[in-house]
Each structure stands twice: as C-alpha cells, then as structure tokens.
Amino acid sequence: MIKLENINKIFSQTKLQGLRLKNNSVNALRNINLEIEPCSIFGILGPNGAGKSTLLKLIYGALSPTSGSIIINNVAIEKNKSVLSTIGICTENEKGFYNKLTGRENLEFYGSFYGLTKLFITNRISELESFFHLENNLNSYYQYYSSGNKKRLALMRALLHNPSILLLDEITDNLDPLFRENLMFYLFDLCKKEKRTILFASQRIEEICSICSRVIFLKKGNLIQDLVLSEQCKKDLNQIYKNNMEFNK
After folding, report:
1. 191 vs 40, 181, 187, CA distance in Å?
2. What is the pLDDT of residues 173-228, one digit of tens each?
3. What is the pLDDT of residues 36-69, one digit of tens each?
4. Helix (H) or strand (E) run with residue 70 in it
C-alpha cells in the first residue's frame, strides 16, 4: 500500500528584478491525498507541468514534500528511508549513466548501490537482456547507445534489484511501436504474475487504458479526477479527460 496524506510541494524561485531579488513560489502539488492498492497498475495522466514527475520523485524520495506524509507498506518514508530500496524508477530523461562505461558495467555499478552480489547482478542481467533486446549492446560503451537503447537500459536498471514498486514516468518516448506494445504486456504480466505495484505516468491515453486499472488526472498540481477504469470508462476516457482539462482551467 502506498499512501499520500495531504501532500504539498512548493518550489521557491528567486529572480532578479532590477536591483532587487524577488522570491516567487510555484505550487507543484496541492493537498494530494491518495491510497494506491498493492499489486495494481495505477495511471497518472496530465499535461506537461501538471505535477506527474514531482509526485513520483516524492514517492521515490528524490524530493521531500513541503508538508504532508508518504507512507509505504505502513512505513513513513521520512522516518525510515530503507523502504525506498523496494522501489525502482525510470524517468523520461534518464541521467546518471556513465559514457565511458559499457551498459553492463553501468548496471553492475548501480547494482552495487543496492548491495547486490555480483552473481545476483549477472543472473538478473541475463533474465532481463533478452526481453529488452540488449544482448548485443551491453558490452558497448554507453556513449554509443541510441536513444531507444538508452531508454531500454534505464528500464533494466529500474528492474535490476527486483523492486516490489515500480515508478515509470513518460517511459515510452524513443521506443519503437512494436517494443512499446510488448512493454505494455510485460508490465501487465509483472503486476499480475509477480505481484508488483506499478505507477505509470503518461500523456498517452491509449497506454493508460491498455494496462491501468485506475487513473488520476493532474493539472497544475491539483488532483482533479480519480477513476476506476471499467471497460466503458476506458472507451470514454479521452472525452472524460478532455472535459476535465477544459472545465478545470
């Protein structure tokens, strides 16, 4: 169970106006309350700047909320950071890989942060490389990877330590259509067969409909809709989303 209680996130910005510094605040998230059931795929839908990435970074611990509490498996993350080791994350613009290391060496490097043994890392890479079609690329330097292969490697890194919670933020950019479709099946099986909890942020309604059982709409940091995705709701989701975006201007 992932629980968010009264989450607010304010970013302070300092700008020089004339000879004076002016402080401006941006409310990235406003009073978010959520309960996300385990072993489900939870969709987060919204335009650029809606707060999707901020929400996931708060759950992952990369950011701290201005106020409110995030609870994972009955543990408040501000009191026990060790719970974050159960989370894997892949974002739209992946950073942190080293150009002068091979793909395999990058994965081994990050695996060491989780305290994984060399044998576990080797076996886990073998499990993942076939699906992500990187068997012939893992021994190449990262700087020579295409955009699509960089995204595949980032997904492998997110899955490397076999996390029970997976946070995915706009992950399908730079992926070819066939692999994108196969990835949706893979994530669905990961949830249903291996009992993983997946948070899936996207701007693509068809992706949300293909795998998610529930979705929220975010706009300008506000949670404006929370829907269980029945078959009828999936058929109407495009219009429901459009109506919400226009009504909540």
Report:
1. 6, 16, 6
2. 889 999 999 999 999 999 999 999 999 999 899 999 999 999 999 999 999 999 99
3. 999 999 999 999 889 999 999 999 999 999 999 9
4. strand 67-72
Q: Please give the Cα distance from 219 to 120 (Å, whole number).
A: 41
- 165: which strand partners? 87, 197
Can you tell me the distance from the alpha carbon of 208 to that of 46, in angstroms, rounded to the nearest whole number? 11
Question: Residue 136 is part of which domain span?
Answer: 2-247
Residues 200 and 44 sit within 8 Å (Cβ to Cβ): yes
Output the DSSP codes for 160-199. TT--SEEEEESTTTT--HHHHHHHHHHHHHHHHHH--EEE
Q: What is the pTM of this model?
A: 0.92
Identify the CATH number of the domain in which residue 213 sits: 3.40.50.300
- In this predicted structure, what is the pLDDT of residue 238? 86
CA distance 189 to 130: 16
The pair phi, psi for residue 221, each rounded to 5°, is 85, 0
Q: Specify the pLDDT at position 95.
A: 81
pLDDT at 242 over 70: yes
Give the tokens for residue 98: 């080293």
46 burial type by CB count under 10 A (0-12 exposed, 13-18 middle, 19+ buried): buried
| Helix boundaries (H) for the chain | 52-60, 103-113, 118-129, 147-159, 177-194, 205-211, 231-247
Q: How many domains does the chain have?
A: 1
Instruction: Work out the mean pLDDT of the chain and round it to a whole number.
Output: 91
